[in-house]
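Narrative of accomplishments. A recurring question from our advisory board has been how the design workflow behaves on a single, concrete structure rather than in aggregate. To address it, we present the structure tokens for one chain from the evaluation set, followed by the sequence designed for it. No filtering or post-editing was applied between the two.
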């Protein structure tokens, strides 16, 4: 029986991996934390005490194309202080789209990471 969500994983060549680490820490607000000593280079990014995003370098010979068409659309995070986040995104030149969710009293900001993956930031009003 499933008890909870654990994490999601993105694999990329080293230069893109570094761009993803920077995006998810500097733009989204996750932090780099402890990671077991795997043979493959990577990062575990945390939200509080929970590792929620694993970044792993592609091993030699493995190709991963950014923006490749799959059924994956986006990862979503609950957030606070929408106005501060909007100012932060604008100051970093990160384009986003704002959507108001009827009935739920939420506003969503949609943006794209350096690999073309969607990111949704949810704010209660």
């Amino acid at each position: 029986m499933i008890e909870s969500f654990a994490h999601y994983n993105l694999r990329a060549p080293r230069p893109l991996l570094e761009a993803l680490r920077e995006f998810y820490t500097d733009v989204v607000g996750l932090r780099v934390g402890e990671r077991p000593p795997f043979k493959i280079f990577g990062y575990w990014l945390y939200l509080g005490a929970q590792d929620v995003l694993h970044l792993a370098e592609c091993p030699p010979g493995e190709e991963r194309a950014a923006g490749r068409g799959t059924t994956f659309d986006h990862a979503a995070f609950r957030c606070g202080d929408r106005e501060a986040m909007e100012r932060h995104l604008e100051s970093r030149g990160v384009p986003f789209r704002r959507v108001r969710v009827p009935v739920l009293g939420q506003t969503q900001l949609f943006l794209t990471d350096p690999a073309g993956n969607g990111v949704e930031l949810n704010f209660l009003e």
